[in-house]
Amino acid sequence: MQKVFLVLAGAASLFMTVQTFAAGFSVSVIETEDQRCITSDGLPEHEAGGGAHGAQAIAQTFCLPRDPVKSHRPSESAAIIGILLNGVIVRPSTAEFYDPSAPRGFSRNRSSGWRLDALGNPEIFRVDANNGHADRRGLYHYHGMPAALIPTGQDTMIGYAADGHEIHYAGEQARSSYVLKSGLRPSGPGGPYDGTYDEDYAYVAGAGSLDECNGAMVDGAYIYFATDTYPYFQRCHFGKVSDDFVQKGPRGGNRPTRVGRP
After folding, report:
1. CB 187, CB 91: distance < 8 Å
2. Is the dihedral of CA 142, 145, 150, 151 positive or negative?
3. Nearest to 170 by CA among 215, 205, 139
């Protein structure tokens, strides 16, 4: 890793960290007193498969707080929940809902209230070996923990959340508190709870070691964790989410209209 110090005329000093991987892949991180901005082309260092559309290089910059503060109430305002150290964004939720009137049985019409989970429907969403795929624009993103980024040493950090808190992967040491419901669905698609939909799961405090946002206090700092079981990544945040991660779409769906900053 290379750290370059810069001084801008009429502005506070800042420094840029450039992390270079194989085949010339790089991610730049510019830090100021209060912000951390990560720039990449959105392509991972590993093979980007999955999806009906091929992954494309899309320039993107996401800025987030350097010193996040944990609040008492979680927020679900972020469409993109974070960005990993390799410059690839994380969007664990999908935009597809159960829709018996649609040819495929699902659409972006939210009215049923039953959202399809990507890893509960890997064939439909064509997720690859790293739990990622490209969307209609070719933007590659993760729905679950990528195997290629599983830490091999003591450092478990893999990225940053939309509110600035760190994201870690600690394997079985961090256990989700979401459990699969038992019995039959009372509405919508019916049938037994089997993980096809987000609503098949329920948060049960104390069932695991993590809270409702898949996070926990560790040595005085609040940290989010990626887990091997649902919800895989946090679906909410306890800090103030950066505007760069809040994407607005048309009513009845959450199709992104922008990616970070141009």
Report:
1. no
2. positive
3. 215
In this structure, what token pair is assigned to residue 250? 């048309």
Which tokens go with 246?
A: 């809040």
Nearest-Å Rg of the Cα atoms of the chain is 19
Q: pLDDT, tens digit, for every residue of 124-174?
A: 999 999 999 999 889 999 999 999 999 998 999 999 999 999 999 999 999
Mean pLDDT along residues 88-96: 96
Q: Which DSSP state fits 179? A: E
What Cα–Cα distance (Å) separates residue 36 from each residue in 2, 20, 68? Answer: 16, 18, 11
Q: In terms of Cα–Cα distance, which of 80, 79, 114, 118 is closest to 100?
A: 114
**Could you give the angle at the alpha carbon of 208 between the alpha carbons of 211 and 180, nearest 5°?**
95
Whether residue 81 contacts residue 162, with contact meaning beta carbons closer than 8 Å, is answered with yes
Residue with tokens 């469409």, as numbered in its chain: 79
Q: Which residues pair with 89 in a beta bridge?
A: 83, 141
The pTM assigned to this predicted structure is 0.86
- Residues 6 or more apart whose CB falls under 8 angstroms from that of 97 comprise 106, 107, 108, 109, 110, 111, 112, 113, 114, 115, 116
Rounded CA gap, 221 and 165, in Å? 9
Q: What is the DSSP letter of 240?
A: P
